[in-house]
Amino acid sequence: MSLLEQIKSHRLTLGLKQSDMLMRLGMSRQQYQRLEANGNPRLNTLELVAKGLNAELMLIPQGKREAVLAVLASGHVPDQASPEHETQEQTSDPLVDDPWEGLLGENE
């Protein structure tokens, strides 16, 4: 799925119309329609659109793409409200500890 298709899909998932983008981005319906249809947006425009769609742009190394997709597909989101004093047994799932650990090949 192309980036422009992903933008349109996410907008529809949020239940937004192209005309709603004026309030979210300051971009007219016509401007936004051109962007979705066949635009070649600048990076700052993509960042603005992502923010308006409650999303974030990310660069993912090609070698890590499948791992990132697997994490996203799992739907596993760490519990942000869990107490700090949990035992190691309760937090032994590496996805809970750091779902992005090692994805960029960084050494700790």
Blueprint (SSEs and pairs):
Layout: H1 3-13, H2 21-25, H3 29-38, H4 43-52, H5 65-74, H6 94-97
Please tag this protein with its features.
6 helices, 108 residues, mainly alpha, 46% helix
> How helical, in percent, are the residues?
40-55%
Mean pLDDT: 80
- Give the tally of β-strands: 0
Tell me the major beta sheet: none
Q: Span from first to last CA? A: 34 Å
Tally of contiguous helical segments: 6
Coarse morphology: elongated
What Rg is obtained from the alpha carbons, in whole angstroms? 18 Å
The low-pLDDT segments are 85-89
**Proportion of residues in extended strands:** under 5%
Q: What pattern of helices and strands is seen along the backbone?
A: HHHHHH
- Which class best fits the helix and strand makeup? mainly alpha
Describe the structure in your own words.
The protein is mainly alpha-helical. Helices cover 46% and strands 0% of the residues. It is built from 6 helices and no strands. It has helices at residues 3-13, 21-25, 29-38, 43-52, 65-74, 94-97. Helix 1 (3-13) crosses helix 3. It is elongated and about 45 Å long. Mean pLDDT is 80; it is low at 85-89.
